[in-house]
Design brief:
Blueprint lengths: L1 E7 L2 H4 L6 H16 L3 E6 L7 E5 L5 E5 L9 E8 L3 H9 L8 E5 L12 H18 L1
Antiparallel strand pairs: 1-5, 1-6, 2-5, 3-4
């Protein structure tokens, strides 16, 4: 199973307060453990929402662009990992080892092909497979 591990934003991350060298080293060591264990597939930190935008869709094909910053820092994302593990409990156990002193981190399972059984057509599945191959080739 794949999981997105979502690091919630806070006032510091929204104000572009960068981690210390020591905090970066601790996170680097933690990430190294994740990679060596075959858990981590990807992970990155995000710029504050002031450097972002939201696009709202109104249901009739029209869109509205809303420039950041956005309010309610606790509802925003400061960073993420993509992990592959056998269960949610395994993801929780790995996350408990993270070098965070405070804050909140959310774990959400990513849909796999099994979630779409009986819905996806063979053509759509072939397209998905082709796109994943193209992405994989670009990242290697």
């Amino acid at each position: 199973m794949r999981f997105m591990v979502i690091v919630k934003a806070n006032e510091d991350t929204e104000n572009a307060v960068m981690p210390t060298a020591e905090e970066l080293a601790e996170m680097g060591n933690y990430n190294e453990q994740l990679v060596k264990a075959g858990v981590m597939l990807a992970g990155d930190g995000l710029y504050p929402s002031a450097k972002g935008a939201r696009v709202a869709f109104d249901g009739s094909g029209s869109t509205t662009v809303i420039d950041g910053p956005f309010t309610e820092a606790k509802e925003l994302i400061a960073g993420f990992w993509i992990w592959e593990l056998p269960s949610l409990q395994d993801a929780v156990e790995w996350l408990k080892k993270a070098p965070f002193q405070s804050g909140e981190v959310e774990i959400r399972q990513i849909h796999g092909p099994e979630a779409f059984e009986g819905i996806v057509t063979p053509e759509t599945q072939a397209q998905e497979d082709r796109l994943r191959e193209q992405i994989s080739a670009r990242t290697q």
